[in-house]
Design brief:
This protein has 13 helices and 9 strands. By secondary structure, it is an alpha/beta fold. Strand 3, helix 5 and strand 4 form a beta-alpha-beta unit. It starts with 12 loop residues before the first helix and ends with a helix. It binds phosphoric acid mono(formamide)ester and norvaline.
Length: 308
């Protein structure tokens, strides 16, 4: 049966840890020279309904480094579900390439794509989640602290797609996850329920708070993301009035564990959810985190294509 990568919660904790172990190995191999061509002759179609820097470039480079190739399909090219039905796009592409990575607005569209494709589909961000980001986040945290088990990871800001995948990967790997979100901007309740089940299975906890100060107390990792995600631009003015108390600034970071690291999936809106001083300061791991997209995704693609 083909294996899609649509959500980290579709995988077991052991599967996720195995992919992270592979990412560590592939990163080491790459940094020592170059990767073995384990994806020789394999091709990826990259469908984008929204802009991207990291996802586009890191997947393209991941395929090339492993001996494969990737094709970028911009929002203007396919018109997913508009020029052509998702079912038809899926069945056509299934005959041309070995794997699809897609960034969509509506999570239902990636599920639909996966349903009709006879090849694996990877979720490169939907309105619900961002599993590839979560793999890079977990890799970055693991590099810093050795393991996620027992750590306190705090997410501050909008309970969005990134907050959901981070919650699930933390729960799967045994990290305690605390969210501080303003009223009306909580994570999806069904996603929270999934997270709580996963957390129960690893002995970790998920705590949803309103107060960012209470949330960062004892935090080993402080994570934030944009206040306005792609597709929500019409709400940005309203959100700019709600979110300022949730800014990750030096004063807030000083309330966390002394060795705390700060993560952000990027792109950052400096002066809004994160200040320059924090983004460029000693606690920041923003750029190693972005670079880890490359290594984590190599592991995901190699795993689902059975090449590892
Ligand atoms: N973090 C992330 O997914 O970045 P891009 O939107 O640039 O791909
Ligand atoms: N939450 C952001 C993440 C971008 C990588 C968005 O969906 O726009």
């Amino acid at each position: 049966m083909k294996r899609d990568f649509l959500a980290v919660s579709d995988y077991t904790s052991a599967d996720i840890q195995n992919m992270l172990d592979l990412a560590v190995q592939l990163k080491k191999e790459y940094n020592q020279g170059k990767n073995k061509p384990i994806l020789q002759g394999k091709t990826m179609a990259m469908i984008f309904q929204k802009p991207s820097l990291r996802t586009r470039v890191s997947f393209d480079m991941a395929m090339r480094h492993l001996g494969g190739d990737a094709l970028y399909l911009s929002p203007a090219e396919i018109g997913l579900g508009q020029r052509e039905s998702i079912a038809d796009v899926s069945r056509v592409l299934s005959g041309y390439v070995d794997v699809i990575m897609a960034r969509v607005f509506d999570h239902a569209h990636i599920l639909e794509l996966a349903k009709w494709c006879s090849i694996p589909v990877i979720n490169g961000l939907s309105d619900y989640n961002h599993p590839c980001q979560a793999m890079a986040d977990a890799l970055t945290i693991q590099e810093e602290f050795g393991s996620l088990k027992g750590l306190h990871v705090t997410y501050i800001g909008d309970g969005n797609n990134v907050a959901v995948s981070l919650m699930h990967v933390c729960a799967q790997l045994g990290a305690h996850y605390t969210l501080a979100t303003p009223e009306g901007y909580d994570v999806d309740p069904k996603a929270l329920e999934i997270g709580q089940k996963l957390a129960a299975s690893t002995g970790s906890t998920i705590t949803a708070l309103r107060d960012p100060h209470a949330a960062v107390k004892n935090a080993h990792v402080i994570y934030t993301d944009t206040w306005t995600s792609m597709g929500q631009e019409a709400e940005s003015k309203k959100r700019e009035l709600v979110f300022p108390p949730y800014q990750v600034n030096e004063a807030l970071v000083a309330e966390a564990d002394k060795k705390a690291i700060v993560l952000h999936c990027l792109p950052a809106h400096r002066g809004q959810e994160i200040t320059d001083a924090v983004a460029d300061g000693s606690h920041s791991r923003l750029f190693p985190q972005a670079h880890n997209r490359l290594h984590a995704q190599k592991a995901v693609v190699a795993t689902i294509l059975g090449a590892a």
